Amino acid sequence: MGSYKILKFRVKNFRNLEAQNLEFSSKINLIIGNNGNGKTNLLEAIHLLASKKSFRKNCTYSHFSSVNGTQDGDNSRIYFFSLLKEDVCDIQTQFNCQIDIEKTERTYSLNGKIVKKAPNIITLYVSPFDAHLFYLIPKVRRDFFDHYLGILNSEYKRGLSKYFSLIKNRNRLIALMKSRAGDNNKQIIAVDRELAKYIPEIVRERELFLKNLKTIYTKVAKDIFANDVDINIILDSKFKSKEEDEVFELMQENLLEDMRSGITRNCIHRDNYSISFNGLSSEGFASTGQQRLCYLSLLFAYIELFRGKFLASPILLLDDISTELDKAKLNGLIKYLINGNSQAFITTTNENFGYHLEKSESQISKKFKLEAGHVSLVNELV
What we know:
Layout: E1 4-12, E2 22-23, E3 28-32, H1 39-51, H2 61-64, E4 77-86, E5 92-100, E6 105-110, E7 113-115, E8 123-126, H3 131-136, H4 138-152, H5 154-178, H6 185-225, E9 231-236, H7 244-253, H8 255-261, E10 272-277, E11 280-281, H9 282-285, H10 288-310, E12 315-319, H11 327-339, E13 344-348, H12 352-358, E14 365-371, E15 374-381
């Protein structure tokens, strides 16, 4: 997997952002502006170009279109223009994308030639405000760990996709049985035997992922955020330490209860992750500030796993995280970004953040001001 940096960027007909050519630092890019001016929109545009989807929930292509329209009247398409640099070979590539909103289609081009496959650019969006839902809703935690584990392990991602396809089929058969439309018991048995092949490996990979995070989390939390908290994450699952035959038997035992519900409720897509701080439950004993800092630390621990796996770094999209950090934690974050190999885009309303960057030496950073969708370069910090 390559490690890319975005050197130049332009987006047209996207939310409130003006169509303008931006030249970014390959290291740190600070975007300062008041709330409501489009800082998160800029991060979203970068994320959308790289990952083909938004980090916002329930967004469709129609949501991305400019609220003001374009001068040429072309409001049915969104255009992305970028210049990428790959770290390993230092080759620069023009990568463009066009989204047809009405047809919900994408067209990619590399160096002016239409291609079917886009470069594999990995971005990581980080917002401390996501921590609230992460600790509050089990499904958010499941989706979080499944998503990031899937990036590290393509086999896990494929196995999980097959699992959900089988669960969808199983739910359809259960619904037919409940409505007495036919006897589908043999078909459910066949589906359960297939599920039993995937579930043990999925559970093992989830536990291994948590174990690997645990080995580096404490150090990352302390080094970056001076957050001396011992976090422990446990996978709550009835299917832990069970092999294929045991999983199949448990699925059959749960079938009657699933029949009453009309849906598969007793399986690994309903598993939970229990999180504790210093031995106490995060839900009942951790403050909002503690939860957010630990959430940030968890994401940065994942970045270290990513680097160890691929010998590459994702592009970091850090959305207004400075509001959660005091001076010591802010300095720790800047030191981490300077010493690392990731390109970072940081949005903030905090003018003092720029001062901390100016204190860093021998690293080139850029500071931008964003007002009403217009981005202007304030200075280059050396």
